[in-house]
Amino acid sequence: MEAEAHGEGETLLRHENALTVLAEKSGFKITEIYREVISGETIAARPEIQKLLSKVEQGAYEGVLVMDADRLARGDSVDQGLVARAFRLTGTKIITPRKTYDPNSEFDEEYFEFELFMARREYKLINRRIQRGRVASVNEGHYIGSAAPYGYDRIKISGGKGYTLKPNKEAAIVKYIFEQYLNCSGAGSVAAALDDMGISARKGKSWSRATVSGILKNPVYIGKIRWSYRKNVKQSRGGQIVTQRKVNDNYILAEGMHEPIIDIDLFDRVQKKMSENIKKPVSSSKALKNPFTGLLYCKICGGRMTRLGKNAHTGYDTLKCANVKCICVSAPMSTVEKAVLEALEQWLDGYYVTVEPTGKASESHYKNIIEELSGELKKINERQEKICEFLEQGVYTADIFEKRREALKNRENDILFKIKRLEEAAENEQKDAAVRDTIIPQKKKLSEAYYCCESFEERNSFLKASIGMAEYSKKVPNRRGHIDNSNITINIYPKICQK
Length: 499
Hints:
- The protein is α+β, with helices and mostly antiparallel strands.
- The chain has 14 helices and 15 strands.
């Protein structure tokens, strides 16, 4: 990416030319080319590799040319396993300028998996170095974000490396936001005022309470650089890896090189007011009345679904999206409760049949293989001690010793990798057995157990024990007199499927 940005590049073009020459020399016919410079850690973040794997799984190619085998996957063992399995099941060869991997060869298959394992370690090492460099740059006062905050332009430091910030014409709006917040009831009122004035947020979007709050809380406007304030936290939901950005208490706050827009006194007064205006979801003197607190989110905009109590128009509690500008339509809370329970029960019925029975035979099978590999590790350690003795006695030269040591080390890494995979497989089978034998029977007849809960707090705890989160969507309101027609879509992410 850096070479491309400097125009030296053409990193992709150089790789493409090298592989084209290789194909011509070998007599291969190239039918399709996939180009990707995304440095994604996971397959989910790489659309081109997804297309390639889809075609490989269909058996569309006899082989795939790539500069290095590790270009196919640098993700965790799950991603590596997906890549290795796709090529193995269809017998698709992996062709590099250095070596051709035949998935039908046991040696090539093991060597390919080992290279993916080593690539993952290299990726982590590179990532650690990059992060150290970023932290050092932040502490020097540089701005290392890809996009400048509202009110600033990102500019190159004159006569030095890195970037800093320079106030632009939006700076006056930032000042207005801080001053207006102190004179009104809250961030929502400021957002509405900006929209009424015809002032657009970034990319022509309308203002929201969250956007205004983000500006008010950002210390960049008093000349500070904040880094790692939000961290990507990965969670497993519905068998998929979901990444959430959560507030990190141990973020870095350094003195920046840029000019502040807001004085510290104004910033501190705003922070004090914001802290005083924080509303707790439920007062300590009141009982919880929303069983979906912390669980249900709008599928359309991602906002929280909040409870609206009974009023003159409706004699029942409803759930609505907290985003006032979202097109999501509200629905009776009782209807949503019923829909969520039905969705969870349907999922359980389907999941139960997907869990294959496991037993002591499979557990002992894994145990026996791991014991055999552990025994081989012990022998390798003994041989390593032996070659050290041979070096000391002069039987081995330094060159022979290095070759023998490297061969033994590679074999040791290979065995450790296999043991790790076997332990993961054994652990997953144990979890499947727990789901089949314990969890699923406990979750049957969910609706009966749910409605036996005496309070909404108990219902909330009941749902949180089974669900990581749920998504709600409704775009068409019900016609008068058809309240029982839910007309809603519920997506659930059960906890019991996490491994």
